[in-house]
Amino acid sequence: MCVCIPPYDGFDCGGCVPDLTGDNCDKKRKLVRSEIRQLSPKERLKVFSYLSLAKMKKSARFRIMSAGNRHDRATFRFHEASVYDVGAWMRYYAYKPILQNNRFNFSTTFATRGPAFLTWNRWHLAFMEREIQIITGDDNFTIPYYDWSRDGSHCAVCTDDFMGKSDSQGVLTRSSYFANWKSICSGYYYDYKYCPVAEDECKMEPLQRSPGADPSFPSLPTAADVDATLNWKTYDTPPYDTRANHSFRNALEGFISPSDGVTQMLNMHSRVLSFMGGSMSQDTICSADPLFILHQANVDKIFESWIQKQGATSAKYPKSGIPGQDPEENIVPSMPPKMNKVFLNKAETFGYTYSKYP
Length: 358
Hints:
Elements: E1 8-9, E2 15-16, E3 20-21, E4 27-28, E5 31-33, H1 41-56, E6 64-66, E7 77-79, H2 83-95, E8 98-100, E9 103-105, H3 116-136, H4 223-230, H5 248-253, H6 268-276, H7 290-310, E10 352-354
Parallel strand pairs: 5-10
Antiparallel strand pairs: 1-2, 3-4, 6-7, 8-9
Helix pairs in contact: 1-3, 2-3, 3-7
């Protein structure tokens, strides 16, 4: 693996650091991620066509792994997968319970329930965005965000003009743009297996979504919830998991009340997934739904607002002792490896910013 000298980046040093572009990586860039409802019908159609291409086109740069038993390397298999499915697999892989002393630790993962949640999310979103830029040849492409804090008890973008309408069974209607999408790693969740249906499309589940159907989560988080979340000054607090009080990260991840920072409840990021139901409510396959990456982008936008408000930098990233989540440990499964703390910096460091909506 190469160690690249800026301004070059990538596992082969064939790319540029995130905020530069051009043949010699000498041109500044600052892309704008817009709210999906700010896009014109033509712009929206381009986003959907790019996502569809990413779902169909095999990645020339990465493979995904399946395994019948993660303890036994003889069962490991590596498969071609589409660009989008590679990204979905990364979330699935990072969500697996951590193996410590030959036992599974279910209290955290490499990507969630700890300090790395927001920096992992930022890295993953940038990875997906860059891979789509590469296959389309469009270096100006950005993933839009979906600001769910304005929508109350309904999903305004869950229509066939946007991310797809679902029927009474939760299946996306045939007229939905993403009606034929399936989850690459669907099926029963095994702690010791990886993506068992990776080579059998017949066993892959179609996307499902049932916004507001769960009576426990009849509405989305509100703008007041967002404002309350942004008021927490400390990025994360001991014990750096779902029990962390007065923690911005834990409030945004959605395991404590945004208003008091103590009461255990599902809100913000976690509430959105539960509200949407179907594929998005399943932690292992939520990233299979393209609505998930729009949700990811909104979470990152809130993260960016907090960084700007609190003047936060990598120095705010705490040492937690959680495997894979300390500041100088690498994001799992980033390639080339990127340290967790790197992504606790302003978005402009990575060549993008967010629009205001409205």
